[in-house]
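Session log. Operator J.P. requested a structure for one protein chain; no other inputs attached. Running the standard single-chain path with C-alpha cell output.
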Amino acid sequence: MRGSDLPARSPHPISKGTIAPPAELNSLLPEELPLGGIGVVSAAPGHGGSSLCYRILAAGNEAGGYAALLDPRGNAMPAALLESGVWPDRFVLVRIRDLDAPRGILLRGLGALLDGFSLVGILDPQLLKNVPWRRVAARARERRVLAVVVGDGAGDASPLFRMDLSEPQWERDSGGLLSGRSVWVAVSGYGHPRGERIHLGGSASEGIDGRPGCFT
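Structure written below.
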C-alpha cells in the first residue's frame, strides 16, 4: 500500500479527542487520555514495551478510532496484536521495504499515517534516521493523533507522557509455558511522577529481542 492510498482522515475519527486508557493503566494515566502528540514507552527487549503499545492502540480501536503500527524491523507478530485486543478491521500493520530510502520518502509515509489514523504506534524509532521528531509531534498535535513511540529515538519531541518499564517477572501456566508477566511502570507527565506494577498477558508468539517465539 502506498501512502497515497490511505484515507485523508479516519473514516470514523474519535470525535471527543480522548480515549480511555487500557485497564491496566487506569491508575497511572488520566481517565480520559487526550489525543494529539507523542507518548514514549521505554523498555528493554522482553520488558513488554511493544505489548503495552499494542494495548494502547487497542484502546483507540475500542473508542471507535483506526490505528496503525509502523514496524521497521518486521517483528510484530499478528497473533500478539490480536491477543492485545486490536480490531483487524480498524488496524493496519505497516512495514518499511527500504530503511535506507531517502528521508523525504520516510517522512511522507509517516505523515500519511498521522493524517489517516487516530493512533499510530512506532517501533524502533532509532531506525528512522534523521526524523525531526519535534515536527512529528507538532503534526500529531495538529491532527489530534496519539503517536506511541516504543524506544528512546524521539527524545527531543517533548512527549505528552513517558512510561519506563523495568523489573519484569515472568509467569507460567500449569503446563510450564510462559503465560504472561508483570512489569514495573514508572510514568512521567500528566502531573507528578508515579509508578506501579502492572500485569501484561501474552503468548509465546510475541517475540523477545526481536525474535519470534517468545515475548516482546
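Operator note: The radius of gyration is 16 Å.
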